């Protein structure tokens, strides 16, 4: 999938655990893991907003477009 979620990078920068972030955002640790491991097929704007608020970042800090053929 050409959209990559860099959640683990932001979590490391903010020094926050998955359990703590899941609690702050209001999602289950299992759903956070799906996002973190790039297994999600979609993300709600409300979840993206809560992640940005909890991590004090912008959506572009979490989402990255990487073309499947490797070109940009």
From TrEMBL:
InterPro entries: Cro/C1-type_HTH (IPR001387), Lambda_DNA-bd_dom_sf (IPR010982). GO terms for molecular function: DNA binding. Gene3D superfamilies: lambda repressor-like DNA-binding domains. Residues 7-62 form the HTH cro/C1-type domain. SMART domains: HTH_XRE. PROSITE patterns: HTH_CROC1. CDD domains: HTH_XRE. This is Putative transcriptional regulator.
